[in-house]
Design goal:
8 helices; 7 strands
């Protein structure tokens, strides 16, 4: 089973992207998407019925829609499939907006958290975006606790706005660590999140990573400065 969560702003981005197509705007609410597969049609139907009972009967969800043919399924999943580009489009990028966001100016970041904290942590990030006046969409892979934020930047954004964007990422990462999660689930540590590794693994853990790095890459020619800093004896490589 595949399970994806889109926040309210993600649905708004999709609605704005629907123009002269055979797609209907959706209620701008946080929305779950499921995809079921099984060894028989009856097993899939049973799983679908169970999901409907939990979402609608137990938690008062609305607009539960299902489909079996590929064409209709693609329409049901359209908001998820086009989320990246519809998110960017909400911050300009059209032919008449030379300062608009592009795929090159958009930050996509992620963390991974335990299932028990997933809903609360995703909601907290969405609230950060609203409270700080930062535009972004939040979506997650419910099956593995991994969630992402898409943060498009315009060329005319102020330094103050950019600082807020990176503050959102910092809060998102620190919350993940606080509940026993990871600073990333898919996108990697790279340059931006290596400062958080000591919070996750302690100084001894980071030191071990540095030792392994220097043992297999003594001249630090493979992705220099990423994940951990190492000292080559000629000054720290950062």
């Amino acid at each position: 089973m595949t399970s994806e969560l889109l926040d309210e702003m993600s649905i708004r981005a999709f609605n704005q992207s629907v123009k002269n197509e055979e797609l209907k705007p959706m209620d701008e609410k946080a929305t779950l998407f499921f995809e079921f597969a099984g060894h028989s049609e009856s097993s899939v139907i049973a799983d679908l019925s169970a999901a409907r009972a939990v979402c609608v009967d137990d938690f008062e969800g609305s607009n539960f829609v299902s489909a079996t043919d590929e064409t209709t399924r693609n329409k049901v999943w359209a908001a998820r499939h086009r989320l990246y580009y519809s998110s960017i489009a909400l911050r300009g990028g059209g032919d008449d907006d030379e300062n608009g966001a592009t795929s090159q100016s958009t930050i996509v970041t992620d963390v991974c958290v335990p299932f028990s904290s997933f809903a609360d942590i995703v909601s907290a990030t969405a609230e950060d975006l609203r409270d700080m006046g930062v535009f972004g969409t939040v979506f997650g892979h419910c099956g593995d606790g991994n969630y992402h934020a898409i943060l498009p930047l315009r060329s005319d954004d102020t330094e103050e706005y950019k600082d807020k964007v990176f503050k959102v990422i910092e809060l998102m990462t620190e919350r993940a660590i606080s509940v026993g999660g990871s600073v990333t689930g898919e996108h990697g540590v790279g340059y931006g999140k290596k400062k958080f590794l000591e919070q996750m693994y302690g100084a001894a853990g980071v030191s071990l990573m540095q030792t392994i790095k220097t043992s297999i890459d003594p001249w630090c020619i493979m992705n220099p400065g990423k994940i951990v800093d190492v000292d080559l004896g000629l000054g720290a490589m950062k």
